[in-house]
Design a protein that fits this description.
3 helices, 11 strands
Length: 139
């Protein structure tokens, strides 16, 4: 799983979260920094309100947390979601000396991003692509 720090870097690079069931997220800066939440049909749902989307925490009065604006949450994309967002640029994932290397093709040039985990390598490649393109990617 990507760290909150890496998820913030993805967001800062232009990654836009369009919440779906099963998505993981964190709610930083509310004494919940180490908690990971998952969108589900029963307990945590996204609600459309006139002033924007909110994440509703159903039955969580012990946390004193009813709703959180979507922009207060940070998406923690899974490995498969990151790979999907790389789209046609993705070439391969391989192990290199205990690390993971993701190879992408950017305008005919291979670029390799090596990190300790596969999802971190995918995230590094996506940050590069988003920064290079100056565009937003959406899920």
């Amino acid at each position: 799983m990507v760290s909150t720090h890496l998820a913030r870097r993805l967001s800062d690079a232009g990654l836009v979260w369009k919440p779906r069931l099963g998505d993981r997220f964190a709610v930083p800066d509310r004494d919940l920094d180490n908690e990971v939440f998952v969108l589900s049909n029963m307990t945590i749902q996204v609600h459309d309100r006139p002033d924007g989307q909110v994440i509703g925490f159903n039955g969580t009065t012990e946390w004193a947390l009813d709703d959180v604006d979507l922009d207060e949450a940070i998406w923690l994309p899974r490995e498969d979601q990151l790979r999907e967002l790389l789209g046609g640029t993705f070439r391969e994932l391989r192990r290199e000396a205990g690390d993971y290397a993701v190879r992408v093709d950017v305008l005919g040039e291979d670029r390799v991003f090596t990190e300790a985990s596969a999802d971190e390598a995918y995230a590094s490649a996506l940050i590069f692509l988003l920064s290079a393109a100056g565009l937003s990617a959406s899920e």
